[in-house]
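Exercise 7. Given the encoded structure of a 295-residue chain, write a plausible sequence.
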């Protein structure tokens, strides 16, 4: 394969990963926009709504390591397709729910598991395997920006769908949009562009002799892994809490819901800038200090 064609393919792979990530996390940030209408039509409380989203995040976290292990064994393409379809079905069930139980199944259980299949753990692994080492950092950086990019464009899209079709129709439309991750997954399924993009064990004709339980046990014995895991609890406050409850808070203040969508979009845009800025600072200063100042 020529160098020019490899370069084009690298950009295609990177942006495919970026778009999959944007569909995953971008769609998730729109749920708070639907809260008021859902509370009214299903006769549930804000606590019920928040608990369903909490279940979603919990299922996402539980499913992620297992989805990653399955992707390692059967391929990232299959796992991304499965995750996208589960996510899409969850959105449809959420949009057609007529009870709290159905809402929890769709918004909490199905979407949560689906997010594990189209999450960064699977997508970035697929991008990294497709791209040669000398271009891997750039490709992974582009793919990682997908979450913030998704919030930037999906918040206004979700608001427009809500105004046009109502919350049920908007979620049904979002379920169709989520299926776009299926064709994008095929772009991550081909053979690596260079020999060094394959795992070392695979290049040597060997398979790693370690189970999922052993891998998790080794990780949990590492202090740095545990500290980093605890640090991710911040996401529950700075991301999940804001995207779920900020639109409702603005409504209480009698501020138009379109302002909430614009605010969420602006947060996503600034997050893109912050991601690249922190990446640059991490290359010049100790990463733990950059992370500490960020928190």
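Solution.
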């Amino acid at each position: 394969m020529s160098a020019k064609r490899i370069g084009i393919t690298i950009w295609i792979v990177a942006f495919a990963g970026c778009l999959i990530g944007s569909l995953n996390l971008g769609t998730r940030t729109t749920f708070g926009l639907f809260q008021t209408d859902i509370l009214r039509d299903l006769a549930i409380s804000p606590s019920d709504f928040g608990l369903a989203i909490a279940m979603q995040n919990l299922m996402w976290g539980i499913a992620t390591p297992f989805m990653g292990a399955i992707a390692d064994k059967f391929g990232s393409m299959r796992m991304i397709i499965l995750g996208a379809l589960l996510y899409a079905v969850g959105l449809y069930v959420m949009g057609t729910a007529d009870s709290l139980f159905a809402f929890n199944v769709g918004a909490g259980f199905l979407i949560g598991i689906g997010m594990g299949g189209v999450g960064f753990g699977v997508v970035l692994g697929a991008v990294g395997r497709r791209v040669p080492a000398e271009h891997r950092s750039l490709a992974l950086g582009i793919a990682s920006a997908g979450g913030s990019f998704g919030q930037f464009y999906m918040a206004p899209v979700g608001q427009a769908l809500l105004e046009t079709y109502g919350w049920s129709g908007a979620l049904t439309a979002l379920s169709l949009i989520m299926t776009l991750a299926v064709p994008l997954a095929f772009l991550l399924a081909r053979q690596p562009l260079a020999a060094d993009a394959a795992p070392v064990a695979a290049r040597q004709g060997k398979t790693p002799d370690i189970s999922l339980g052993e891998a998790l046990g080794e990780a949990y014995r590492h202090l740095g892994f545990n500290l980093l895991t605890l640090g991710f609890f911040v996401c529950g406050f700075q991301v999940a809490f804001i995207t779920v409850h900020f639109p409702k808070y603005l409504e209480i203040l009698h501020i138009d819901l379109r302002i909430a969508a614009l605010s969420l979009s602006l947060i996503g845009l600034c997050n893109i800038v912050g991601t690249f800025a922190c990446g640059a600072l991490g290359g010049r200063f100790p990463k733990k200090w950059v992370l500490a100042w960020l928190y």
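Remark. Residues 113 and 263 are 28 Å apart (CA to CA). Students should compare their own answers with the one above.
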